[in-house]
Amino acid sequence: MNHQVCGTRRRLEHAASNAVRTIKPLGLAAALAVTLCGCAEHARNVLIPIDVEVPNTSRVDMLVMTTRAPSSQPGELFTGERGAGRALDEIVVSVPPDANRKVGDVQWPAALPADPALDFATVKVVDMARSQAGSWFRRVGTNGNKLLIFVHGFNTTYEEAVYRFAQIVHDAGTRAAPVLFTWPSRGDLFQYAYDKESATTSRDALEALLARAAGDPNVSDVTVLAHSMGNWVAMEALRQMAIRHGAISPKIKNVILASADLDVDVFKSEFLDIPSPRPRFTLLVSTDDQALGISRAIAGDIDRLGEIDPSVEPYRSKLTGADIAAIDLTKVRTGDDINHTKFAESPEIVRLIGARLIEGQKIDGDSPSVDAEVGQTLSQAAAKVGTIAGKAVVATDVGGERR
């Protein structure tokens, strides 16, 4: 769920009224939305390339696959509606000099054209044929031919997904070639049900992307990073791949599930449909994630995977044989008021993703590469569980009701 929920109070109150009449728990979402209206407005339709070079800026060259419908609005590229097929674009985003920004922030332009010295800016957009993806990877892939595929969450427009992924790639410091998979989210807090169905319609396309990536002889390994509702799409695609082919491609080595808006029982079922050997699964969880608290209230008060406490039962020790690491971010503090995007906004965690998790390394609380504050948090989690940082495992006996 994108925490930058802006707009007029009147629009939110009207939407909240309609939502509450339909689904009472969404009144919680309405209250949350009103508290978030203080965020600053920024320019829209930012995907119009500008031809300006500024010293010390960085560039993120990504491949973007989408199942969205194309837009006739310049700079928007794709809407939140469902498309008839799949589209592929190369997009290059300029990131301001490190001296002019804070790690974890997406610095949106207040007006167009963007100022690359201060703002994220689009510098290249190319409509690509699928046959061109291989040449893009050979040009961009520089780190042992690794590929990072990101699946965004609920309430995210196309341009928001592009800029957020550019921030993650840049701040993580990863050299894995970045691929964004963006599905038809309307970017509206009160379109949760629509977004969920749109995510479901996109699982075949993501499976095809994963299969294409794993089948490319130039790709050595693939990491899947999913956020929020994007975890539903990711797990469904992986499950389908396993059922269709009898296994997950061994090239898909790492699956990182951040703030997963996914029923724990559904995750259990999906996970068990993937036979061993499985990719290395890592959960990034936070018990104070307010967005997932709302999702849980709507969905029958069943825990969402991204809000579990990995130090308590039933998540602590029953199912360690599944070898799923859960890193508890509850004590990590960022500018995210609802604690749903810590994985991207915390400088320590986003660097941890780039330096360790994408490289396929296990994380323990004593790791010297983890900054002091986060290292202490991970050490405490590891001490509680006695193994990998806050290790939680999910298999046949994953719990359901909140305890």
UniProtKB/TrEMBL annotation:
The keyword Hydrolase applies. GO terms for molecular function: hydrolase activity. Keywords: Hydrolase. Pfam families: DUF900 (PF05990). Gene3D superfamilies: alpha/beta hydrolase (3.40.50.1820). PANTHER family: ABC TRANSMEMBRANE TYPE-1 DOMAIN-CONTAINING PROTEIN, TRANSMEMBRANE PROTEIN. This is Alpha/beta hydrolase.
